[in-house]
Specification:
Length: 156
Amino acid sequence: MQRTLAIIKPDAVQRRLIGKIISRLEEKGLEIIALKMTTISEDMARENYSVHEGKEYFDKLVKFMASGPVVILVLRGKNAIEVTRRLMGSTSGHEADAGTIRGDYAMSGRFNLIHGSDSVETAEREISLFFENETLLEHEMSDLRWVYDMPGENLF
């Protein structure tokens, strides 16, 4: 199983979309193995988004991410990174497909509700920024055989 980090951004928190976003992730079959509501300092935002440093939007992104509470989640599942990014939709809400989080709830490119890791390496780095390894609560979910076609599981 793969792990990824997702951040429900300040705009989604202010718009009371936390539950709707978490529901989408869980309903798809992703397991939440860590979750916290917090604020991100500008220094932490700079570190998390360091790959964008030097781009014209970097400073605005840092200030936005530090502007209010966020909800940070670690998700686990088969192809969790790809699945989460597909659920999120394109970066700009007005371009995102209907049925995605951004396509259904966002209009902006900057206020786009959710962040998700884009690779295994990024996920590992981001998870370690926000969570201690011992706080990740991985356990066997009883519904996995119904979510995935698991090898060795002979249901029928």
